[in-house]
Amino acid sequence: MRVPVAIVLFVASCACAAEPPTHYLTLVNRTHDSVVTASAAAAGSDAFVPLALARPLRGGGGSATVSVAGEGCRYDVQLQYRGKRAQLYRNVDVCGHRGLRLRPTPRGAADGEAPMLANAPDSLRD
């Protein structure tokens, strides 16, 4: 019995459509410390999912590209540095930017909160 090619293609397209889109984000570490873990959650959510770093992201300009799977474009990115310091970048637009430049936490910032401004130089445009 031969299955028509159209049916096979239809079933394959339905299976692919069920997966959320994947966005790629390049992290550029301009801090002095190495990033040991990174995770992302939909903006405003606490459901952080680990991002795959092959090895710690060295400070001083090391970079790595990670994949972020999800329907939305805005994510909170949480970083854990060697030495237990943590940093949170809120509302990162992974659709409009191809990367995120990590900077040392400014003095007076709230407990590891990395300030993000509209058109911030931290975001790398396409």
Q: Could you walk me through the main structural features you see in this protein, from its secondary elements to its overall organization?
A:
The protein is mainly beta and 126 residues long. The protein has a single domain (20-125), classed as Immunoglobulin-like, CATH 2.60.40.2890. It has 1 helix and 9 strands; from the N terminus they run αβββββββββ. The chain has one helix at 5-17; strands at residues 22-29, 35-42, 49-51, 62-69, 74-81, 86-93, 97-102, 113-114, 123-125. A 5-stranded mixed sheet has the order 3-2-5-6-8, with no helix packed on it. The chain has a 4-stranded mixed sheet with strand order 4-1-7-9, with no helix packed on it. The longest helix has 13 residues, at 5-17. It is globular and about 65 Å long. Mean pLDDT is 81; it is low at 117-121. Keywords: Signal. Residues 103-126 are annotated as: Disordered.
At the fold tier of CATH, the topology name is Immunoglobulin-like
- Structural domain tally: 1
H/E element sequence: HEEEEEEEEE
Helix content: 10-25%
Strand content: 35-45%
Classified in CATH, the superfamily is Domain of unknown function DUF5300
Mean pLDDT: 81
Q: What's the CATH architecture name?
A: Sandwich
- The largest beta-sheet arranges its strands as 3-2-5-6-8
Query: Main β-sheet: number of strands, strand sense, barrel status?
Result: 5 strands, mixed
Q: What class would the helix/strand composition place it in?
A: mainly beta
**What is the tally of beta strands?**
9
**Termini separation:** 50 Å
Figure out the total of helices.
Answer: 1
* Radius of gyration from the alpha-carbon trace, in angstroms: 18 Å
The global form is globular
CATH class, named Mainly Beta
Low-confidence stretches: 117-121
Keywords: Signal
